């Protein structure tokens, strides 16, 4: 479940160079100083000393090695004839170490490279933390000579070849601890499992004055995974990376697919020794390095290679010169972008540079001094430079690059670099001549109607259409031109638990970005997003020819019928097209599907051999004897089969399918390799609806056009959720987790996709397909009615809903009087239904009971309860205050949601009740976030994602933003508000760590929680969050979520909390971080049984969302987003609010009912308190699922295996707080201003400031708010002046009465959450260039 291969990085990165190529030890000193000043962007492990990794990549220090050669008695004509391999060998296993050295020597000999000697690298082990020391490799340098007559580049290539050959041999020999940190005659890497300040102590070489270089790339790593290794510390051979490659799986797969076609006269027959190009055990950054290194050594030029791998958003930039646009278009014919937030510093030993991804979501700032020193880094102020010597300052914008060419002595700017590359080849001519576009669309209506109308219902049934598909999806997509919306989460069983057959698409859950990278706003950032699709054969990555641009360009991957027809009629020799039927004979039964799939793969392979470049996979042949193979299965199988056969780059796959109709379906098809999709049956359905006048008067043509546009918007949104900007990168990126699909299917069709619970196989998929087929062809031909599935709304005989009328009616009955017999009826209603979640498949292992009197009291249990963070605005004031009062009465915690609270609620009411939510939420909308709001909280919760709509934020529609709501949120009435906005200001784990730090400064008494949504790798993310000093981590499941959300998100994004919680518990325990944080779970919790299971899986606090609303009177009408809630729970309409039936007593009754049920279960199991069972999944067992055949195929062992079988690690939090040790500058300021604050007298203070001084002013503002509320102090009561480079969040939450004047410069987040204070930033008086 928790895999340490899925490393996620964030960090500080940069380079220092002397542009004239003058080598000096000063460059090394500056580089190590710079990376030390970025230490706060890294993280340390549980031992408080082991870092996640730090290092530098620099030129080989010739003076130093000259002396080493002398010691070895070696004399070279030139030190430039020497290469150095920085090798990590097994340390404790002496025989493996000897084997590793022997392999190196043998490989050198084989390639004619003379061995000059080995050098034990001087090390100071006292610098290391315990974990780093335990895992430290033997670090050796192998010194080699230049084979005669090899020129510089050829020497580099030879060493690269040896390096690749060694990697393969090491893998074959099973020498896991062997790693080549660098092997070059130009560059060398010193890195380790360190924090930056340890770097020079650990490697004394770096302090040796003989260590001279003209350039150095540096990196401080913040991995979200503390099982980080020495190998994954950065820089790698050519680069250091701050960011995350979201499309990694696709990039790796496409690279593997390209390997069969790689050719270069530089490599000749050796080319196959280089593959696999990508180390499958590496991180995303290492994978990018692998490809950059290949391209660089294949004569591409490192700047050119970077431009190809991480291109600018050229598609829609109006003022980009045509020659550059053409170059980028050409490069997109060669390779898909490596997409995701990235700041990359890179070097080949001669040129050093940095570039940003197309969104520019990582900081990269530089300065140039008059003596030719160039400093580039994640922050300014990492090197203290005399401003009078700085001749230039700047920052990289989205997609931009900067470089220093040390041989030419030039600083190269973005435009100069790009234009020079764009003019290297006749790209514009090649693109103009090569790229083909389709004729403009014809009338789709006529094309579509040709297909099926008379048999339409039969086709629809064969492809599993239900009434809801038409009514709740297709119609709104056409008539409203937007995705269908629903509310109140998903209370139906996941497809694999359902007794009903489901389309294969519903077994795949969309993944989404949280914490380690940001989602994108696909509407407001449309400029950087692209659906442009190219079809046709791709060519050798290592060359650039006219043939590479011989492709068809489509504006979108969605093909209308006429588009497909146009493709088929192209009649151009380079674009040979054929269609393969994607059906299987009904007579072959369940086994027939797999056989047909194998035959399909064979046919596809033969078609490619025959020169086909466009392969249409079509399920149109469905008839009474022939059933459709689910198109996702067909596309995935052919895609992976062709990759395995080395033929994938020769053909594009086009899906002509009846089963795709929702945005999610198209995303799955493209995500598993389809270049384009023609949803002919959805079009037919729309045409029929238009003819029946059911589409608000739209013509068939207009309706088809609108549907296509809506699908395209939906695809963009799904891509954006994961932070992916281009469909060419999304294609094949497999951004899904399978829920309930077995390994046989995954390995064959969806290779590499995570599927943690196993599940259905080919036979079950065939059975579900045949079920739909039987419905279509066994009934009366005249029966045009589609089934009512009850998939989105409760229907008798339809899909099961956990919140069915029996459940909420019995709960309403109970909360009125709180009678225990009524609670039993409620529990009975909950438990007698069908299983609807993973926890419903589990039972408690029987044990010896104890008396309930021996169990901790309900008052203690209930303190662990919270209500979900539902904002004032989404809820009515009555509901919001009822929940807060009830939870405060219980000593439990209500969540404010992000919407602010009136300050009048922060004081107790006359009867002693308090309506202030204990948990105040802060998302990046900062709605209602003021210093007083912050200091009124017991806990501050950072919302990274929302359970029912991860990656896109919760939306309060404009009609619910009344004057009162707007005033509390400091917004404008009638304006819709999203929280968190998809494109927020937390771009990375270090940004989140910064916000945690900010909040702890503003309110040092409050704990800080981070709310995550369950998905694969949430445990990895949680480890990073714990290392970012959060006190509480909340894992939300996909089921929960109140309020409005796209149906596609409700059903298809996020995973059950059981999975996320078990993974998080395992990750935190494994990384020895569990005792530092409280772990909370929420999402569809309904009963004491749910709580006890959550506890056994690792949770120590428990959130109630939907059920808390039901307890106050919600009747699940599911119209919260419409402002028409009939019971006043989720509306701002005064007339409806008047009908609100809820009271705090009802909520108190519910919470105590659940707490007492928890006690009763604990007593039955023989445990005295919740702590006894937290993190003990071994107390659970799977139930017998004979009546639920699909669910019975799940393997729950990963959930049920204890995180620590030895039982010695902490299973719950032991530390009261998880705080970073530091003394903020604000402590000094507060001391200096104490009297002024108390007496309201003015004071002038001054300080020098550096980038390590972060969040200056926040603690001061929080303290003032504690005394005087948001009114603060009279203007400029506290005047502080600073000189230098301020760290991040300068002036955060700055309150009235505070004036901060900075002479110098500041980093990101200046004035975050400002609240009436004054900030002035001005350039240094001796500065000769303006600030930026
Ligand atoms: S009753 Fe009100 S709160 Fe409950 S689902 Fe319906 S609209 Fe939403």
TrEMBL record:
Pfam families, per database record: GATase_2 (PF00310), Glu_syn_central (PF04898), Glu_synthase (PF01645), GXGXG (PF01493)
Pathways per UniProt: Nitrogen metabolism; Amino-acid biosynthesis; L-glutamate biosynthesis via GLT pathway; L-glutamate from 2-oxoglutarate and L-glutamine (ferredoxin route): step 1/1; Energy metabolism; nitrogen metabolism
Signal peptide stretch: none
Glutamine amidotransferase type-2 domain location: 11-407
Region (Disordered): 893-912
InterPro entries in the cross-refs: Aldolase_TIM, ET-N_metabolism_enzyme, GATase_2_dom, Glu_synth_asu_C, Glu_synth_asu_C_sf, Glu_synth_centr_N, Glu_synthdom, Ntn_hydrolases_N
GO biological process, one term: glutamate biosynthetic process
Key words, A-Z: 3Fe-4S, Amino-acid biosynthesis, Flavoprotein, FMN, Glutamate biosynthesis, Glutamine amidotransferase, Iron, Iron-sulfur, Metal-binding, Oxidoreductase
Gene3D superfamilies assigned to the protein according to its UniProt record, in alphabetical order: Aldolase class I, Glutamate synthase, alpha subunit, C-terminal domain, Glutamine Phosphoribosylpyrophosphate, subunit 1, domain 1
The protein's Enzyme Commission number: 1.4.7.1
Cofactor(s) in the UniProt record: [3Fe-4S] cluster; FMN
Entry GO MF terms: 3 iron, 4 sulfur cluster binding; glutamate synthase (ferredoxin) activity; metal ion binding
EC class: oxidoreductase
Family indicated by similarity: Belongs to the glutamate synthase family.
Protein name per Swiss-Prot or TrEMBL: glutamate synthase (ferredoxin)
Organism: Geodia barretti
Organism phylogeny: Eukaryota, Metazoa, Porifera, Demospongiae, Heteroscleromorpha
């Amino acid at each position: 479940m928790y895999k340490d291969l899925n490393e996620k990085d964030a960090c500080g990165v940069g380079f220092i160079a002397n542009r004239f190529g003058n080598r000096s030890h000063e460059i090394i000193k500056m580089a190590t100083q710079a990376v030390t000043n970025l230490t706060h962007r890294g993280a340390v492990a549980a031992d408080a000393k082991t870092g996640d990794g730090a290092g530098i990549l620099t030129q080989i220090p010739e003076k130093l090695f000259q002396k080493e050669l002398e010691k070895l008695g070696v004399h070279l004509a030139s030190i430039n004839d020497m290469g150095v391999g920085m090798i990590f060998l097994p340390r404790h296993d002496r025989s493996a170490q000897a084997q590793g050295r022997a392999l190196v020597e043998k490989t050198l000999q084989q390639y004619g490279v003379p061995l000059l000697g080995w050098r034990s690298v001087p090390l100071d082990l006292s610098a290391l933390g315990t974990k780093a020391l335990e895992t430290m490799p033997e670090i050796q340098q192998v010194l080699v000579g230049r084979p005669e007559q090899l020129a510089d580049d050829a020497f580099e290539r030879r060493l690269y070849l040896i390096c690749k050959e060694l990697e393969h041999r090491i893998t074959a020999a099973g020498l896991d601890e062997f790693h080549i940190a660098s092997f070059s005659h130009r560059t060398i890497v010193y890195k380790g499992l360190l924090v930056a300040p340890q770097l020079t102590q650990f490697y004394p070489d770096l302090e040796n004055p003989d260590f001279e270089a003209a350039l150095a790339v540096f990196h401080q790593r913040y991995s979200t995974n503390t099982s980080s290794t020495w190998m994954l510390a950065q820089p790698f051979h050519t680069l250091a990376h701050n960011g995350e490659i979201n499309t990694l799986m696709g990039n790796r797969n496409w690279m593997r697919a390209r390997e069969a076609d790689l050719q270069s006269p530089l490599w000749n027959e050796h080319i196959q020794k280089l593959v696999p190009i990508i180390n499958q055990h590496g991180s995303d950054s290492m994978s990018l390095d692998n490809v950059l290194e290949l391209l660089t050594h294949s004569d591409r030029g490192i700047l050119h290679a970077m431009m190809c791998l991480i291109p600018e958003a050229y598609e829609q930039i109006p003022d980009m010169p045509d020659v550059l646009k053409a170059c980028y278009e050409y490069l997109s014919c060669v390779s898909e972008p490596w997409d995701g937030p990235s700041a990359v510093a890179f070097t080949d030993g001669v040129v050093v540079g940095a570039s940003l991804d197309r969104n520019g979501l990582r900081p990269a700032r530089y300065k140039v001094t008059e003596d030719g020193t160039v400093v580039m880094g994640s922050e300014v102020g990492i090197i203290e430079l005399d401003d009078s010597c700085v001749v230039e300052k700047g920052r990289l914008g989205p997609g931009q690059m900067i470089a220093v060419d040390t041989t030419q002595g030039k600083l190269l700017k973005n435009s100069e670099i790009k234009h020079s590359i764009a003019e290297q080849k006749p790209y514009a001519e090649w693109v103009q001549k090569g790229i083909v576009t389709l004729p403009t669309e014809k009338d789709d209506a006529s094309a579509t109607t040709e297909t099926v109308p008379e048999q339409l219902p039969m086709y629809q049934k064969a492809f599993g259409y239900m009434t809801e598909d038409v009514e709740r999806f297709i119609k709104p997509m056409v008539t409203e031109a937007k995705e269908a919306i629903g509310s109140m989460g998903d209370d139906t069983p996941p497809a694999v638990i359902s007794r009903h057959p489901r389309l294969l698409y519903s077994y795949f859950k969309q993944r989404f970005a949280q914490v380690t990278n940001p989602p994108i706003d696909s509407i407001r950032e449309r400029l950087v997003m692209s659906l442009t699709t190219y079809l046709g054969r791709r060519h050798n990555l290592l060359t650039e020819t006219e043939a590479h641009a011989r492709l068809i360009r489509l504006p979108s991957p969605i093909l209308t019928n006429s588009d497909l027809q146009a493709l088929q009629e192209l009649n151009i020799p380079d674009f040979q097209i054929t269609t393969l039927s994607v059906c299987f004979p009904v007579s072959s039964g369940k086994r027939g599907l797999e056989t047909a799939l194998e035959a399909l793969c064979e046919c596809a392979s033969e078609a490619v051999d025959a020169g086909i470049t466009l392969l249409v996979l079509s399920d149109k042949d469905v008839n009474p004897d022939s059933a459709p193979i689910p198109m996702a299965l067909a596309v995935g199988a052919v895609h992976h089969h062709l990759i395995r056969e080395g033929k994938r780059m020769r053909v594009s796959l086009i899906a002509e399918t009846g089963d795709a109709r929702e945005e999610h379906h198209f995303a799955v098809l493209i995500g598993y390799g389809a270049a384009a999709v023609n949803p002919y049956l959805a079009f037919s359905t729309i045409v029929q609806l238009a003819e029946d006048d059911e589409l608000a008067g739209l013509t068939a043509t207009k309706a088809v056009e609108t549907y296509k546009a809506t699908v395209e918007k939906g695809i963009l949104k799904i891509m954006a959720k994961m932070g992916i900007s281009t469909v060419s990168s999304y294609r094949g990126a497999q951004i899904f987790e399978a829920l309930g699909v077995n390994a046989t299917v995954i390995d064959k069709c969806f290779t590499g996709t995570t599927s943690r619970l196993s599940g259905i196989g080919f036979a079950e998929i065939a059975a579900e397909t045949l079920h739909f087929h039987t419905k279509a062809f066994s009934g009366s031909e005249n029966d045009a009615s589609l089934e009512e599935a009850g998939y989105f709304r409760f229907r008798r005989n339809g899909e099961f809903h956990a919140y069915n009328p029996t459940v909420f009616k019995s709960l309403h009955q109970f909360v009125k009087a709180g009678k225990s017999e009524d609670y039993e009826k409620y529990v009975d209603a909950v438990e007698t239904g069908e299983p609807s979640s993973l926890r419903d498949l589990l039972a408690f292992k029987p044990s010896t009971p104890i008396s309930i009197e021996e169990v901790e009291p309900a008052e203690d249990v209930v303190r662990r309860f919270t209500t979900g963070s539902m904002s004032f605005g989404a809820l009515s004031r009555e509901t919001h205050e009822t929940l807060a009062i009830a939870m405060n009465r219980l000593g439990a915690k209500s969540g404010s949601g992000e919407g602010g609270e009136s300050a009048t609620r922060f004081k107790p009411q006359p009867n002693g009740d308090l309506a202030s939510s204990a948990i105040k939420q802060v998302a990046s909308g900062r709605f209602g976030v003021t210093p007083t709001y912050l200091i009124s909280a017991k806990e501050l919760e950072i919302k990274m994602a929302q359970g029912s709509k991860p990656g896109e934020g919760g939306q309060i529609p404009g009609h619910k933003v009344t004057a009162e709501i707007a005033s509390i949120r400091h917004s404008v009435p009638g304006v819709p508000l999203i929280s968190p906005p998809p494109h927020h200001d937390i771009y990375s784990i270090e940004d989140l760590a910064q916000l945690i730090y900010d909040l702890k400064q503003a309110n040092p008494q409050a704990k800080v929680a981070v709310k995550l949504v369950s998905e694969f790798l949430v445990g990895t993310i949680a480890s990073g969050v714990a290392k970012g000093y959060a006190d509480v981590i909340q894992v939300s499941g996909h089921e929960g979520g109140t309020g409005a959300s796209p149906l596609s998100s409700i059903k298809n994004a996020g995973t059950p909390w059981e999975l996320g919680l078990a993974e998080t518990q395992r990750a935190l325990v494994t990384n020895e971080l569990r005792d530092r944080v409280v772990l909370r779970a929420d999402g569809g919790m309904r009963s004491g049984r749910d709580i006890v299971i959550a506890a056994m899986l690792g949770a120590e606090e428990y959130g109630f969302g939907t059920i808390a609303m039901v307890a106050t009177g919600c009747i699940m009408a599911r119209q919260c987003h419409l402002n028409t809630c009939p019971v006043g729970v989720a509306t701002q309409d005064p007339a409806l609010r008047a009908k609100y039936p809820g009271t705090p007593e009802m909520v108190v009754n519910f919470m105590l009912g659940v707490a007492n049920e928890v006690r009763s279960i604990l007593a039955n199991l023989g445990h005295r308190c919740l702590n006894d069972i937290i993190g003990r999944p071994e107390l659970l067992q799977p139930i017998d699922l004979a009546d639920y055949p699909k669910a019975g195929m799940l393997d729950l062992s990963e959930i049920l295996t204890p995180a620590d079988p030895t039982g010695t690690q902490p299973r719950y939090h032991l530390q009261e707080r998880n705080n970073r040790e530091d003394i903020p500058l604000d402590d000094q300021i507060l001391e200096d201003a104490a009297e002024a604050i108390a007496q309201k007298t003015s004071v002038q203070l001054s300080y020098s400031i550096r980038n390590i001084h972060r969040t200056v002013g926040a603690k001061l503002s929080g303290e003032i708010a504690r005394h005087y509320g948001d009114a603060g102090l009279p203007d400029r009561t506290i005047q502080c002046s600073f000189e230098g480079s301020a760290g991040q969040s300068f002036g955060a939450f700055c309150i009235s009465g505070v004036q901060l004047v900075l002479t110098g410069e500041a980093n990101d987040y200046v004035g975050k959450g400002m609240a009436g204070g004054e900030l002035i930033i001005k350039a240094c008086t001796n500065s000769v260039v303006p600030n930026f």
